[in-house]
Each structure stands twice: as structure tokens, then as C-alpha cells.
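Sat 14:20. Reprocessing the chain from the morning session after the first attempt stalled halfway. Input below, unchanged.
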Amino acid sequence: MASAEQRTEVDALRMEPISKLSMLLTLVSILWRFVSICINWSLAYTYFMEESYGYCAWTIGSILVPMTVTSVIYIHTLKYTHSGEKRIVERGIYSNVVISYLFRDVYALNYALKYSMAKERDDKQEEIGYYQKLMTEECNVSFVRLFDSFLESAPQKILQLAIVLQSTTEFTYYRRIALVVYFGNIAWCIQAYNHSNRLAQLDKHDIAAKGRFLQFLFLLCLTVSRTLCIAYVASLFPIETVIICAALACFCGTIVFLVDSPMIAESRLMNYLYCLCFGVVYLFIFTPVKDAPTKYKYAFYLTFCLLQNAIACALYIPLYLATTIIALYIVGIALLIFYYTYCHPNTVRTYF
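Finished this time. C-alpha cells:
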């Protein structure tokens, strides 16, 4: 058995440096959370003033449902991992929901700052302790951000695109900005989720900057393509699209629950809810639930979605838009292959 000093030395060697840029990005994500919330509520208010009560109800639902679901998952995850049990017990249920919804990134920023101060003091025990807390918190928060972005932003961007395609209202500059924010938020949250997952595993190397940029690009291409396809079909068959997407999300979530069996809470119901959230994510993009080989999963998923897009484009979508949808998806696949061939940490170690 290794001594405490030896374990400390090994752990210290495996720790990735936490840069000031990383802490700045965490601060930006805290502020961006409030910007996103303000955009959603202002859109709900705009729909209400335009007497588009169906759109207003959809928007409010896409705020409240993700807020409840992700907050419950986040709280149960903290209790299960015992990483935030004390702060949960000391607060009431409503405070937990509000704080986990609005301020969940604050704890990660706090641990990052304390880690940096311990590093400056050359206090190895404190440094390792806060690093482990930071990685655990980042991992917990990253998948909650991921669910937030899909459960909240995905319904909104589909609604915005469906409105434009139906030409039922003016596509204002504000709505264009909101759409860009939604797409960027989703791609960023997925790559941040993958990045945090690697950092939380001490036997994994970090993803380099150019790798993270390529991840962002191929995720953006794939999600934009899928969203354009779903939104156009939704503009023609709104009820049918909702039913099919809900059924597909439940099917994918059930497969994840049975095959991968992730354990983020003591309750099987909470674990299944967690898997259902991944089912929603899989409507747009594949991301692994746990650390395992993903080559064949990616190949099956991307082929299946490309086939779906091709069938929808052939049956319902005009040629100019169908060409864009298929081209974006193929470009996304090409960038993904390039990333895994030349930029993935398991292929080559890069630090720029």
C-alpha cells in the first residue's frame, strides 16, 4: 500500500493546471446564465403581448420544466456523491431549487479560486483537496448545464425556426440574436460536458484548445442540421412532431437506462429521469453517458440520424433547405472524424 505522501505526489502529478482563462470562462457562464434566463422570459412576455398564447405557454413551459427537472437531478446527485450534502441540509427545498438553478456555477468558481490560492502557498494537501472538489463539482454541473441547454434551449430554437418557416410573425433582430444564443449555448455546453468528464478522470489527458474548438464546430454543425430538420417538419406537423420526438426521447432514455445503467442517485426513478434527459439530448447529438469505447455508437447514431434527415428532406423539405441540412451534417461528421484522428488526447497529446 502506498503511503499518504506517495499518493499525494502521484495525484499532484496527474492534476491539470487550472488557468485564469478557465476561471474567467466559469464567471462568464455564471453571467451568461442570467442573460439566457432574461432572453427566455422576455420572449414569453413578447408572445403574451402579441396574443400568441400558445407560444407563450410553450416558452414558459420550456423554462419551468427544465428548472424543476435539472434542479431535482442536481440535488439528488450532490446527496448521492456526498459532495454537497451539508449545504443541501442547511437550506430548504425552495432555496435548493432556486440556488441550484441560478447559482450552480458559483461553487465551481469558489473551488477554483481556493485551489489557486493553495497552489500559490504551495500547500499540496489543500491543493489536491480543492482540485478534487472542483473536478467533482464541474462534472456535476456540466451535465446539468447540458440538460438545461437541451430541455430549455432546444424547444425554444425549434419554436423560433418553426415561426419563421410558417411566416406567422416578423423575424426580429432580437429573435435572431436569441436563436444564435441558443445554438451557441448548446454546442458550448456539450463540449464543456466532455471536457469536464475528462478532467474528472485522473487517468485521462485534458482536451487541448484546438481540440475543444473542433469539438465546438462539429457539435454546432450537427445540432444546427438536426434542429433545422425537426423545425421544418414541426412547422408542417406540429402535434405529430412533438409526439414522435417525445416517443423517440423515451425510447433512447430507456435504452440508456437498461444498457449503460448510470447511477447518479439512490432512487431508480431519479436514475431513469436522468436517462430520459439524455434521451432528449439524443434527438440532436450523441454524447457518452459513461467512459467506454464510442466508435461504434457514434457510427450507428450518426448513420441513423443522417438517414432520418435524408428521408425528411426527400419527403417534406424544399431543395435549398434540404441541401443545407444534409451538407451541415456531412461537414459535422467530417470534422468529428478529423478530431478523433488528429486532435483527440488518446491519439496525440497537445497543449495548445
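Confidence is low (pLDDT under 50) at residues 1-13, 347-352.
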